[in-house]
Amino acid sequence: MPVPDICLPVSAATRTALLLVGAGGLLQDAADETLGQAGLDGRDWSILSILASDTPGSQQELAKLLRKAPAIIVAAVDDLERRGLVERTRDPADRRRTRVTLTRKGEQALTRGDELANAAVARLFSGLDAAELRQLHELLARGLGESIAQRPAAA
Question: Sign of the C-alpha dihedral, residues 88, 149, 34, 69?
Answer without folding.
Answer: positive
